[in-house]
Amino acid sequence: MSIALFIFILYKGVQIYSGILIIYALLSWFPGAYDSTFGRLISRISEPYLSLFDRLNLRIGMVGFNVMIAIIVLNLAASGLGRILQSILY
Q1: Reduced to 3 states, what is the DSSP secondary structure of residue 61?
Q2: Is residue 3 part of a domain?
Q3: Does 10 fall in a domain?
């Protein structure tokens, strides 16, 4: 498998996981959404990564910014790894 294909798969995986994190955040707008089968699945996928940001206290009033910061960190990490792999390739 070439490095270019790995970089493509990495970016697509980050896009998909970012979408899952956005869905997780949107589920908080609906009462009982986390108790549904879909909500439990999304929670099971999202919460291990989001738990890394729980101790940062990213709440202002009733609004939590954990998901937004988690998406930014995920995209920065993928971008950095992609650049490193591209420098190896070329």
Answers
A1: coil
A2: no
A3: no
